[in-house]
Design brief:
The chain is of the alpha/beta class. It is 49% helix and 14% strand. The protein contains 12 helices and 7 strands. Helix 6 (134-141) links the parallel strand 4 (121-127) and strand 5. Helix 10 crosses helix 12 (255-281) and helix 11 (237-251) packs across helix 12. The protein starts with 9 loop residues before the first helix and ends with a helix.
Length: 282
């Protein structure tokens, strides 16, 4: 019998397709439905992360003040302006932030909290390994009477192709596809971006920001500011040379490298002072 001679019950077929779609959606959102919508959770913290089976509060979230992000003045102004529009219920973009590791991409997003948390902003982080959950997560957040930036952190299309496609599916519907109380802020390393082999990701975003690497002066500026905030600065010329040698050991000039050096340096300073105090009492 030829295919054209088959008698197809289209009503039955469409009914079965609808049923399969319903089952797929139920399976996708089952992990979210199992967790009660506890709005009190969002009064106890400003930042959260998705762990695959529920939200966890980031109670010790590292907030580098925006003014410490040296050399990122245009990027800071753009992301603050876009977020202000979002908080005021004005049209606002999804944001793509690209740059090297440790250059301050995540800090640009987390740094929004001190300015906007009192106005109802919360940040939910989702790593690339859980990116396939992003659509269901967004639908889950739409019923919470707050405004959310979903930070898709360091996405890697090569590491999680299915998750990457889920993100694109959500973005492909533009602002209509996302609830009005959710915007996607996506960070990506230059290395991960290179794996796209020329495919343009920018077109899915209304705003994209490139975060440059620090130069030596910017790196030392962050070192000095962090050292003072830790209570062990300012650093003299000799200590600054030590900081430069730290960066030269393959760590590079980045905000992350600066923070790592300051933690190491201040710990050694504290240990030296304690040793001198103990020696002086003997």
């Amino acid at each position: 019998m030829a295919f054209g001679e088959l008698e197809i019950d289209w009503d039955y077929l469409l009914e079965r397709i609808d049923r399969l779609i319903d089952l797929g959606e139920a399976r996708l959102t089952s992990g979210f439905a199992e967790e009660d919508m506890d709005t009190e959770l969002f009064t106890r913290a400003a930042a959260f992360y998705w762990q695959g089976d529920g939200l966890r509060p980031l109670l010790d979230v590292d907030l580098l003040p925006m003014e410490e992000l040296v050399g990122l003045e245009p990027q800071r102004a753009s992301i603050i302006n876009n977020t202000a529009h979002f908080i005021q219920a004005l049209p606002a973009h999804h944001v793509l932030i690209r740059g090297g590791r440790g250059t301050g991409k995540t800090a640009l997003v987390r740094g929004l909290l001190p300015q906007f948390v009192a106005e109802g902003l919360r940040v939910v982080e989702i790593r690339t390994g859980y990116l396939q959950d992003v659509e269901a997560l967004v639908r889950w957040l739409q019923d919470v009477p707050l405004q959310f930036v979903v930070l898709c952190e360091d996405i890697d299309p090569a590491a999680n192709p299915a998750g990457y496609q889920s993100l694109l599916a959500l973005l492909n519907r533009g602002l209509v596809g996302c609830p009005t109380n959710v915007r996607l802020y996506v960070t990506m390393t230059n290395e991960a971006g290179a794996s796209l082999q020329g495919r343009q990701l920018e077109g899915y975003f209304g705003l994209w920001l490139d975060v440059p690497n620090l130069d030596q002066d910017g790196y030392l500026h962050i070192v000095q500011r962090l050292a003072q905030s830790y209570g062990c600065g300012p650093l003299e010329a000799q200590e600054q040379q030590t900081a430069l040698r730290w960066a030269d050991q393959g760590r590079g000039f980045s905000a992350l490298s600066a923070e790592q050096f300051v933690v190491h340096y201040c710990a050694e300073q504290a240990e030296s002072i304690r040793h001198d105090e103990v020696g002086g009492t003997e």
